[in-house]
Predict the 3D structure of the following.
Amino acid sequence: MLTCKDVAHRADALIDGELTGWDLLKLQMHLALCGACRRFVDQMRVTRDISRTVLALPPEDLKGTEAGRIDSLLSRLHDQKQHGGS
Ligand SMILES: [Zn+2]
């Protein structure tokens, strides 16, 4: 039986469809029993979809799009972090 740590390590390969046979089966068995890992993999899939969308677009196309809003939100969060501490 895989541990949650094993699943976390293999989540990338799972999302990329690189797991096959017994590896895939073991992971799916763990996901069937473990809600925490299901949520983890779901979240990771969403995050990767977003970053793929952002990376696929040239920067000038991002303005006014959903990705552009996320981008400016992230840089605002980054600024807050930098000005917040010390
Ligand atoms: Zn788990």
Observations:
- The radius of gyration is 17 Å.
- The chain has one domain: 4-84.
